[in-house]
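Q: Here's a chain of 503 amino acids. Please give me its 3D structure as tokens.
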Amino acid sequence: MSQKTAPPNTAPLRATADRPEEAGSRHRWWILAVIGLAQLMVVLDATIVNIALPSAQADLGFSDGNRTWIVTAYSLAFGSLLLLGGRIADLFGRKPAFLVGVSGFALASAVAGAATNFEMLVTGRALQGLFGALLAPAALSLLTTTFTDARERARAFGVFGAIAGSGAAVGLLLGGVLTEYLNWRWTLYVNLFFAVFAIVGGMLLLQRTPRDRSAKLDVPGTLLVTTGLFGIVYGFSNAESHDWNSPLSWGFLTAGAVLLAAFTWWQTKAAHPLLPLRVLLDRNRGASFAAMLISSAGMFGVFLFLTYYLQLSLGFSAIQTGLAFLPMVGALMVSATASTNFLLTRVSPKIVVSLGMLLGAAGLAWITGLGLDSTYAANVLPPLLVIGLGIGMIMAPAMSLATAGVAAEDAGVASAAVNTMQQIGGSIGTALLNTLAASAATDYLVGKDPTNKLVQANAALESYSTAYWWSAAFFAAGALIAVLLYRRGIPETDPDAAPTVHM
């Protein structure tokens, strides 16, 4: 590999095989298991409760209108506080941030699981989001600083990317099993089991890292980005439940955009910026953030609408639906591991990520042809495998490159930016695709008998197909962006970019 001069502020990574003392702690693979378990807890909570919502609604007696808040409360707190959580991890230490995040998440899950009314359930979900915003960036930054050897880092990020990409599907399966065989409260209580192992492992394996005591929290930046992200997530959530013409939709989206623009301007002036622009301005890193945003938006075309199709059109149970996604999870894990271990060491990310995007687009275009007489084995499984392969080739490389080369003091906030892109992408995807699907169903019913069961079923198919096409368009746009933004050539590595966590 030829040696090149790094662009300003990028500090790319170089293999550390010649510096074995910095190649990672002797417990690094156990640390990966602990971090992966905590990440799985956060990711699957975005979907595990969804299947339990009808049971929770019947038990607690809240309205259909309030039902969306069970999901929105989590995404609002999580999405708007991520950058703050990442900077807290940088300023006060990643180990304490991780342990507080896991412990708080478990406590919030217990509160939500024990809810006796709607208000208590929503409060628990919001607290889950709050502590998740502290936990998620701490977990990813710990991974970044623990694995500095190029080969080991590739393997670690392959595993972590597979967890991040498959968590939603695992949540659907686990939610179905727990709801059917126990009750809806166990979709929340299950986090206590994850948390116990993560807390014990974190206390035993992680070590406090030195921090810059002269650094201060950027309070104006924190207020601007937190309120800006809140406006974006809340605006898209309202677009889903209300209408794009509602002031609760466009008003919050506009305010959020203005606040985020003000935040960007402030980061150029602040003495201790919350999100130093050097983190964003590296081409590979910026391309990876964009890839996470777009692929997360497109993924909802799979998880959300294919779930509807399997249950409502093909008559699958909740457990059968979860099981139906497992082959995709397997394909995703294989491609996530292969893309970071083998492809990125031989091929430019420009090719790897754009190919993943094209596979995602092709798979989604394929499933637009699903009908009422389609079968899982012949018509659903093949494109699902293609989509899984594509998502794995996007998620793992993007996560690795988005955090590669950042200085140790920026690892937390860079990790938070990755999670923010994933969360905002999911919010955008949910709102846009739900709105487009609903409009397609309404248009289909014009001039037809809306009470006819077959007409209703075909209207649903039309709405799903529309969502799949738009999701395919997201991935196709992502392929173009990957080609334009990623640098040519194989990424290099630098031993000083991400110091190891020594045990």
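Q: Can you summarize the key feature?
A: Confidence is low (pLDDT under 50) at residues 1-24, 494-503.
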